[in-house]
Write a structure and sequence with these properties.
With 142 residues, the protein is α+β, with helices and mostly antiparallel strands. Helices cover 17% and strands 44% of the residues. It is built from two helices and nine strands. It has a nine-stranded antiparallel sheet, with no helix packed on it. The longest helix is centred in the first third of the chain and has 19 residues. The radius of gyration is 19 Å and the shape is globular. The relative contact order is 0.19.
Amino acid sequence: MISGRHLIWAFAAVTAILLSSSCIKETEMDPAMLESGQISLKVRGKTVFIYDEDDHQVSSNIHKLEFRVGSDDMTEYFIIHLDAFPAAVDQDVTADIRYVTERGASRKRDGLSMKVVKTDDTGLVWLWCSRDRTGAVIRILN
């Protein structure tokens, strides 16, 4: 039988957990990433991929809403699949991201709520998930 005292402590613990998870600080996109016109991927605040046109390739499949960037030998890459075409600034999209780092570690981040932060005339799109501090600069190819 649970005493009243234990019930109060349990209620207090659950309340504290719920309050702390709902107060996750949202962050803005890294200004350097925002100002850069460089295709890249940042996960949890750390840059994990930077595009180099001499060693990497870019592709996109508009029908599948999939954007790929990878080294010529595919030892490092990232793939972003979106639930909607990123057409306008402040648009919310959900992203599934797969990536392999230069050390060969395969990772994924699924169901990220991202916002289109910026677009430009060259087809670049800046995406940012503030809660996860994850961002990407992708290029939409025609």
